[in-house]
Amino acid sequence: xxxxxxxxxxxxxxxxxxxAATDLVSQRGVAGTSLxxxxxxxxxxxxQLYLYFPDRDALLREVAGATCDMVxxxxxxxxxxxxxxxxxxxYLDALVERQAQRPTPSGxxxxxxxxxxxxxxxxxxxxxxxxxxxxxxxxxxxLATMARRGALRPDVDVAHLATQxxxxxxGGLLLTQVRRDAGQLRIAADAVLDLIRASLRGATDTPxxxxxxxxxxxxxx
Length: 221
Description:
Blueprint (H helix, E strand, L loop, with lengths): L7 H21 L6 H8 L3 H7 L3 H24 L5 H16 L8 H9 L4 H28 L8 H22 L3 H17 L13 H7 L2
Helix pairs in contact: 1-2, 1-4, 4-6, 4-7, 5-9, 6-7, 7-8, 8-9
C-alpha cells in the first residue's frame, strides 16, 4: 500500500485518483483502463498520479482493496442481520434485488476483479482474498450467534457452513454475470436457505418439496 499523504489536500487528491480508477475498472475492466484515463477522470496531473501510485500495478492493487471495501460497505446493514432465519432471508433477498435493479446484472465486483487480476498480481489476489475473507467472517459471525442461541444443531460446523454459503453465492453471482440474469442468484440464494434450514435444530434430512414459481414469489413479498 502506498503511503498516506500528510496533508488533507494530498489525501483528497489520492482518494480522488483511487475512486476514479475504481469506477473505471468497474465500468471498463482492467484491460480497458489506462493511467491516462484515470488521470483525466480524476482531473489529476501525471506527477500527482505517480506521487501516490508508483505504477499501474500499484494502483490496481489499491483498486482491489477499494472494491472489496465498496462491496462490503454496500451490504453491511443487511449482513448485520444474518443471525436469524428471517434476517438471512432479508439478506439474500437484498443481494438478489441489487442485481435485479441493475440495467445489466453484473455479478460480484470482487469475483470479476479476481478473474482479471488474480493470476497476474499476487498482491492483488491477496487483497481480494482478504475481502472475501471479511465477507465470510460476517456470515460466520451471524451463524455463530444462531449457534449460541441454540438455533442450530450442535453438530453443525459454523465455519464450514459459512464457507458453503459464500461459495454458493459466488457461483450464483458468476452465473448472473455471464447469463445477465438475476434469477441465477435467486436459485443460489434458495440453495443457501436449504443449507441453513437443514442446519436448524430439529431439522430432518427430508428434502423440501420444490416450490413452484408462484409460491416462491408469494413467499418473498
